[in-house]
From TrEMBL:
Xref: Pfam families: Flp_Fap
InterPro entries: Flp_Fap
Protein name per the record: Flp family type IVb pilin
Membrane-spanning parts: 23-49
Keyword annotations of the record: Membrane, Transmembrane, Transmembrane helix
Length: 61
């Protein structure tokens, strides 16, 4: 039978959860970076396509 001190020692020595938290933090930082880049570039890319479409319509019409 395990005593409370044995359970506490086992929980304190287990570092598997810490690794999972680190991976989750890294993943969330990558996701925030990607979302920021998409938000920043999204409007400029949309404007670029709009200008291209306008110029093509002017060339054809």
């Amino acid at each position: 039978m395990h005593t409370w001190s044995d359970i506490a020692k086992q929980l304190l020595s287990d570092d598997g959860g810490i690794t999972s938290i680190e991976y989750a933090l890294i993943g969330s930082l990558i996701a925030v970076t990607i979302l920021g880049a998409v938000a920043t570039l999204g409007s400029s890319v949309g404007n670029l396509y709009q200008r291209i479409g306008t110029r093509i319509a002017m060339a054809l019409g």
